[in-house]
Amino acid sequence: MRILNPYYYILLVIYLLLSCCSTSENTQEKSSEQGQSAQSPDSNYVTQILDGDTFVLSSGKTVRIALIDTPESGEPLYDEASQYLTELILGRTVTLKPRGKGVDRYGRTLAEVFIDTINVGYSILRSGMAYLYLYPENIHLKKTYLPAQIQAIKAKIGIWSLPEPVSEEYYINLKSSFRFHRPLCIYLKKANPGNIQRIKNRYNALNRGLSPCRSCRP
């Protein structure tokens, strides 16, 4: 029988020891990567609902859903609108499509929001939990969203099931605006008379895609 050189056995032991160390390090690295992955949820994962049209993502970003305006705290159906959004997106990952300048005056991300194939803003309008809220930057989307509001009005659901505000003989809209007002609204005091146009009634304004002024509440 051939006797191997003792140095052969020494080299073999060293090789086996190095292999074990390498395997252990790789296992630790994979375990660490998996742990980091588990602790880093999708940045568009919804973690908190603030109200019917505003929520917070796991990234810390606050998002305001574009093109809609839901009841504020203290107004009828505020809780219902918040609950509707909660059931729709809380704990899920959403897709954002920034609109306008991408942020509103409060620094919130302003975007259309989608969950799978569902347009969240459209769904809220269709449920009667919001008014359509247009700006010059998103007027091209009026044809997409206005039908949802009209359907909700006809069905008398959500905010459209509430008693109507005290009516006026007519309402006012400024040509440069997408809001409508009562004739004596404070926002009209300094308005250029040439920009003022009368609207026959409230539903005529709503069917044109105008939303009620939050001051005079027509």
Any descriptors?
218 residues, alpha+beta, OB fold (Dihydrolipoamide Acetyltransferase, E2P), DNA Methylphosphotriester Repair Domain, two-stranded antiparallel sheet, 5 helices, 33% helix
In short:
The chain is an alpha+beta fold. It contains five helices and twelve strands. It folds into three domains: 40 residues; 122 residues, Beta Barrel (OB fold (Dihydrolipoamide Acetyltransferase, E2P)); 55 residues, DNA Methylphosphotriester Repair Domain (3-Layer(aba) Sandwich).
Please trace the helix and strand order, writing H or E for each element: HEEEEHEEEHEHEEEHE
Q: Kindly provide the radius of gyration, computed on alpha-carbon positions and rounded to a whole number of angstroms.
A: 29 Å
> CATH class of the largest domain, anyone?
Mainly Beta
Q: Characterize the largest beta sheet: strand count, sense, and whether it forms a barrel.
A: 6 strands, mixed
Question: Could you tell me the strand content as a percent range?
Answer: 15-25%
The number of strands is: 12
CATH fold-level assignment of the largest domain: OB fold (Dihydrolipoamide Acetyltransferase, E2P)
**Alpha-carbon distance between the two ends:** 106 Å
What level of helicity do the residues show? 25-40%
What's the CATH architecture of the largest domain? Beta Barrel
Q: pLDDT below 50 for ≥5 consecutive residues: which ranges?
A: 7-13, 20-41
Mean pLDDT: 86
What would you call the structural class? Answer: alpha+beta
The number of distinct helices, counting runs of at least 4 residues, comes to 5
Large-scale geometry: globular
- How many separate structural domains? 3
